[in-house]
Design brief:
mainly alpha; de novo design (two linked rop proteins); single chain; 140 residues
């Protein structure tokens, strides 16, 4: 637990960044003809998960905006899972590698769902500054 001072301290953000970097490295091996379709889409959606979590963190003053950005992150995670399934079915990645990444994104989605369902643990109270160091009670 403890105080979370920055979105980079969130385990869910760290997991999203780690998964996105794995996808970045993995897609370097995709065929050149996939560069403007599967590769770009998979990289974009995976990066968007972490980016939306960061945006949600900065919108903690507004519960509806906070939840909306967490929902956006979850949607991007689901899109990434779909692209991973395409990569598995086309043989660009092995089933084992794909399943491992699919599980990572399931964990990320679960963490985002918990955060969305417990907004009182995350949102800032009216009258608090938006400066780093605001105390929160949970750390997914």
């Amino acid at each position: 637990m403890g105080n979370i001072r920055h979105f980079r301290e969130l385990r869910v953000w760290q997991g999203a960044m780690s998964a996105a970097m794995k996808i970045f490295e993995m897609t370097k091996e995709f065929p050149p003809e996939e560069r403007f379709s599967m590769t770009d889409q998979m990289r974009r959606s995976s990066r968007s998960v972490a980016a939306n979590i960061a945006e949600a963190w900065r919108k903690r003053l507004y519960p509806a905006a906070f939840v909306s950005k967490l929902n956006d992150a979850e949607s991007e995670a689901a899109e990434t899972q779909t692209w991973l399934e395409f990569a598995i079915r086309t043989g660009y990645i092995s089933r084992a590698v794909g399943d491992s990444l699919l599980l990572e994104y399931e964990k990320i989605c679960s963490q985002l769902t918990v955060m969305s369902g417990k907004t009182d643990d995350w949102v800032m109270r009216t009258g608090l500054s938006r400066s780093p160091g605001v105390s929160v009670s949970r750390r997914p």
